[in-house]
Amino acid sequence: MELWQLSATQIAAGVRERAVSSADVVRACLDRIADVNPALNALVDVRPEEALAAADRADAAVAAGERLGPLHGVPVSTKLNTAQRGALTSHGLKAAEHARAAGDDACVAALRASGAVFLGRSNVPAFSLRWFTANDAHGRTLNPWDAGRTPGGSSGGAASAVAAGMTPVSQGNDIAGSIRYPAACCGLVGVRPTVGLVSNWSAPGDIEMELPLTAQAWSVHGPLARTVADARAALWAMASPDPRDPFGVPALPELRREPGPVRVYVVRDVGMAKPHPSVDAAVTAAAGWLADAGYAVEERELPLLEEAARLWALLLTEDLRLALPVMRDLGDDALRTNLERNFAYAARLWGEAPGTAAYIQGWARRATLITRLQELLGANALLLTPASAEPPFEQDADTGDPERALGLFPAQWPMVSVPVLGFPAVTVPAGAPDGLPIGVQLVGGRFTEDLVLDAAQAVEDRAPSLTPPAAL
């Protein structure tokens, strides 16, 4: 096995035990980046000298017997919309293509404290607002499985890089599936934690900007990885309860598990988009694997997920309305077209001008849905859903035929319903029929990340292993 093929947990253990050096692993990953990144365009701002210097420091710390973090010496990438001290932070905008961050966002600081070695910055769409990854500043990112299919967005660069072996772990963020959907598109594990588990605090920049309420209440940081074990290790390395985050928690709650098997409610369809046959087959397979692992599996209808998906279209779109002038001015043509389709879809559900009353009532209804889902799941039950009602979308499906573009939104009900409610969710591969990876999603009660990851591990243990053609 090549060093770049090692998992994050294997690298961390090897470095700790001095069976392998961080410097050798980083060199192998840099060589891998040089081999495959020119074709995939997953990472930008790769700086080998800095990465190798950090790896040398990691090895020196091992030799000196210093206390080591959980990702000590492990190569990772971070996302272009997340501040990393001294690194490019362009948000995929031509107007900011040379911008560099003065400090670390909290999640990056947590990764740095864990001993991770930063290799590069992962590509995003402009303003990180598409399920596709391309922009005028840095170009298009390809899916290692099929160049004609999206790698997902907005963490598409992160997913492409991990799937192709450039890094074992990437940091991403998620307000509409931006971690979970790219992971599903590229055959990876993607973790969206409970809101507040990983700090959303941002380092001060040159421009002071107030985030809209949906970004504050829904957006989270989390990892993408090739294995559940790596995703778990990276998640807990990133976990950073932080009083500076208005939705952060000061400490993790201790949840009491009920006796008996964990229950899994299978939700295939909420009436918004019929699942593609390969998607439905993946859900069936995952349900069978979980039953084989001892979970109590049952089919269930859950209309509140459809209601949450509809609220996503109302609340996020109304927040975006306030930023439209800036986004249209600084964004690229693809973003402008995508925004038009966002508003057109929302108008189908809520009318052209929903108004303040609908917005306020939407936020009030959200709280009720959260309570109802938490009462259902507690600390001992999970949901199993598709990752999306369709296989990975064809490239630029959101900017081509208008009706096709509008059909993407209902297909993404599993991606958009979860952020509205703030629950933890993991996408995990369940096969690759027709040469395209298909993921399923597991959702747990608030702060039950380990419960969700245990179920994802049960699926991973029984699913066929996946290697994209670009990583062979």
Key terms:
eleven-stranded mixed β-sheet, globular, Amidase signature (AS) enzymes, 43% helix, alpha/beta, 472 residues, 15 helices
Give a short synopsis of this structure.
The protein has 472 residues and is an alpha/beta fold.
Structure description:
This protein has 472 residues and is α/β, with parallel strands linked by helices. The chain has one domain (3-471): Amidase signature (AS) enzymes. It is 43% helix and 12% strand. The chain has helices at 8-16, 22-40, 48-63, 106-113, 156-163, 180-185, 213-218, 228-238, 277-292, 303-330, 333-350, 355-377, 402-411, 413-421, 449-462, and strands at residues 43-44, 75-79, 117-122, 134-135, 139-140, 169-174, 189-192, 220-225, 263-266, 296-299, 381-386, 425-429, 439-444. Helix 2 (22-40) runs antiparallel to helix 3 and helix 10 (303-330) packs across helix 12 (355-377). The longest helix is centred in the C-terminal third of the chain and has 28 residues, at 303-330. The protein is globular. InterPro entries: Amidase_CS, Amidase_dom, AS_sf, FAAH2.
